[in-house]
Design a protein that fits this description.
single chain; 184 residues; six-stranded antiparallel sheet; four-stranded antiparallel sheet; 13 strands; globular
Amino acid sequence: MPSGAAAITAGDTKLVEAYGKEALFPAGQDVPAPSEVAVLRRGRPVGTGDIAWMPDADTYCLVSIRERGSDRQCFGLATKRKAQGYVHVGRGAPHGLGSEAEPHRLWLTVSVVENTSGPFAYTGGTPEHGTPVQEATVRFSSGRTMTFLTYEFPEGMEIPRDAEICSAGRTVCFKAFEPGDIGQ
């Protein structure tokens, strides 16, 4: 059961229920129990946001629930990795279909740091139009303690390639927008 994340709110309950109702799981695949998932980001309206879980010790999955659509992605972590400070930078994923009022879609990046506490923040070239780094530290039933870092930026906006995310004291630093595994 995940622990260490913020208390589940009424909005989270709606979000956690929504991911299982969406057609995001192939036939025959088990939908993780609500006790096995962690809410990473809460969106508006209530009931939208991002949820993560670990189906095994070397994989994490992300479901993004949005008003106009949902998405599910799973990412493999390196099977041999440092016990502390391993970093996996996920690929950016677009969400939001845009509208006349807000024509740009947002790109969500989810990065994972294992067995290292934050807080984490941008250093170097901070994205001018990006959101602050949000983090959720979770201990899963696999025994893994993961800190999920989420950050977004609008489509079509310039991203400083030197943008890094670092923990307090710069114990762990990594390129914010360079997908891949670091620290192996």
